Amino acid sequence: MKEIVFYGRGGHGAVMASELTAIAAYKAGMQSQAFPFFGGERRGAPVKAFARIDTQPIRVHSQIYEPDIIVILDAELLKVARESVSSIALKAGGSIVINLPGRDAAEKYAAGLNANIGGLAFVDATSIARELGLVVAGWPVINTAMLGAMAKATGVIGLENMANAIEEYWPKPLADKNIEAARKGYEMCTALQRSGAEGGF
Amino acid sequence: MQTKVITGSRSVATAVMLAKPEVIAAYPVTPQTEIVEDIATFIEEKRLGSRFIKVDSEHSAMGACIGASSAGARTFTATSSQGLLYMDEVVHWAAHARLPIVMAVATRALAAPWSILNEHTDFMTQLTSGWIQIMAENNQDALDSMLQAYKIGEDPRVTLPVMVGLDGFILTHTSMPVEIPEQADIDSFLGERKPEFEIDVERPFTFGNVIDERYYIDMRHKMFESMQAAKEVIGSVSNEYKRLAGREYSMLECYNCDDAEHIIVSIGASSGDAREASDRLRKEGVKAGAVRIRVIRPFPSEEIAKALGGAETVTVVERSLSVGGGNILAHEIRSALYSAHGPEEAPFVKGFITGLGGKDITPNDYINMVGITRERPTGDEWFGLTGG
């Protein structure tokens, strides 16, 4: 089983990202589960969302405390929301996919992390969302760009399955824009570290 | 048959769409709101032809269902927590009036202090109501149980309302693949509701009239007998449903139980975590099993006595609390085992109160609770207190 945690702020689309992951995984012939961190949802407040993917039917419903993958939609969040993040520890050798503007920022970020991380990949999802006009109430909706990046960096779900999930999730013009965002996220995602031959990083 | 990745709320709403109740009345309350929103969408999109009655409260919602059901309609409502408590008076009326209303309850903690998160105490407050009570484990179970609920409640041997519980947020807001039966299959499975008595000016009856002290007790006895009869109906409806959907349901589900020395009993969405715990315990050499209670009214006493009778210890994990009484489920399980096996032969039953107000219950928590039971098997305990 692969367990994924998405960190963002209300408005980034972290919850939708987890749902799209579950739909895409099912389309890829796997079993899946997606759920938000339960509570009141507020625009701008820290948001956590969870996804599980497995070849077997998923029976557990407890929260995820040791994910294989962490997708960070807002890099600043981990500084301001330490309390909500502290209960989560990346599984040894797990992967981080993060929304950062460039390599310098990513290297700086990686320097502050412990050595057990299998890989870190970054993508400038905010710019992708802004360029495509994926902005709601002033917030760039970066989830689909991040899902494209996750597809490339971790290989848990292919880009085409992700695109199919997006197509099912939104009506036509909006779906196309989001598929484009996912493709750009995929193309522009850059791995900082590689840990050998096993898929992904 | 189509499979969709949908939430527990959407699973319930989809079941409602397939069951085609003539009348729906509901008032929104977190975490039930999306069930009602989805149903309203289906009606708006003309995928569901029900009359949706907008009401000013949960009490009125059940009142509207009672009226419509008395006139012969198939009905649905949904609520949660404070809403269920506000509805309470007429919840009991619906059962006493023998109206096969179906209600979904998205379980949630009770205030004060205010919490919108999951707990089963709201659901458990209705154990004396006369409703059949099914608690789903996952989204598929929620959809399947909702469809079976109509068939069970409307059976002439039963004619009682049915409540389908699903863990607030943990199921209502969680998306998973759910197989959706074909409309034609459900049409022939459920058929039309055929009530023995209904409000009809051509064929007048009195409904809910005064009864004197000689006969009231007999009316309650008939209700009790019908609830007992529901056990057999639940079984036959499950078999019939299995033929169309391929999935089998029983009043309780046993996992790793045959040679189990230590059995966990759970109810609702965290039951899969209990099974996971039993697998992990087996890897450590502990012969552990897991039993999920799916139907709590009628209480499956015989099945419990059979499933748990051979164990050394039973660890009952509850997300509910009767203040002053403690565990609710553990008491009933102890009673079933004591009645069937006597004090010498019955296993130790230890109840845990945990998971209140949204506190997570993980497989490790179950493993720890089994450890505590093995160490001190008597006396119920709390688990997960912070000391705060």
SSE layout:
The complex is a heterodimer of chains A (201) and B (388).
Chain A: E1 2-9, H1 14-27, E2 31-36, E3 46-54, E4 69-72, H2 77-80, H3 82-85, E5 95-99, H4 103-111, E6 119-123, H5 125-131, E7 135-136, E8 139-140, H6 143-154, H7 159-169, H8 172-188, E9 190-191
Parallel strand pairs in A: 1-4, 4-5, 5-6
Antiparallel strand pairs in A: 1-3, 2-3, 6-9, 7-8
Helix pairs in contact in A: 1-6, 1-7, 6-8, 7-8
Chain B: E1 2-7, H1 8-19, E2 23-26, H2 33-44, E3 51-54, H3 58-70, E4 75-79, H4 81-96, E5 102-107, H5 121-124, E6 132-135, H6 139-154, E7 162-167, E8 175-180, H7 183-190, H8 216-245, E9 252-255, E10 262-267, H9 271-283, E11 288-293, E12 295-297, H10 301-308, E13 313-318, H11 329-345, E14 348-353, H12 363-375, E15 381-382
Parallel strand pairs in B: 2-3, 2-4, 4-5, 5-7, 6-7, 10-11, 10-13, 13-14, 14-15
Antiparallel strand pairs in B: 1-8, 6-12, 9-11
Helix pairs in contact in B: 1-2, 1-6, 3-4, 6-8, 9-12, 10-11
What does this structure look like?
The complex is a heterodimer of chains A (201) and B (388). Helix content of chain A is 39%, strand content 21%. The longest helix of chain A is centred in the last third of the chain and has 17 residues, at 172-188. Chain A has 201 residues and is α/β, with parallel strands linked by helices. In chain A, strand 5 (95-99), helix 4 (103-111) and strand 6 form a beta-alpha-beta unit. Chain A has 8 helices and 9 strands. Chain A has a single domain (2-191), classed as Pyruvate-ferredoxin Oxidoreductase, domain 3. Chain A has helices at residues 14-27, 77-80, 82-85, 103-111, 125-131, 143-154, 159-169, 172-188, and strands at residues 2-9, 31-36, 46-54, 69-72, 95-99, 119-123, 135-136, 139-140, 190-191. In chain A, the strands form 2 sheets. A 7-stranded mixed sheet of chain A has the order 2-3-1-4-5-6-9, sandwiched between helices. Chain A has a two-stranded antiparallel sheet with strand order 7-8. With 388 residues, chain B is an alpha/beta fold. In chain B, the strands form 3 sheets. A 7-stranded mixed sheet of chain B has the order 3-2-4-5-7-6-12, sandwiched between helices. A 6-stranded mixed sheet of chain B has the order 9-11-10-13-14-15, with helices on both faces. A two-stranded antiparallel sheet of chain B has the order 1-8. Chain A binds chain B through residues 18-19, 22-23, 26, 31-36, 38-40, 58-63, 65, and chain B through 3, 5, 116-118, 138, 167, 169-171, 173-177, 269-270, 272-273, 275-276, 358, 360-363.
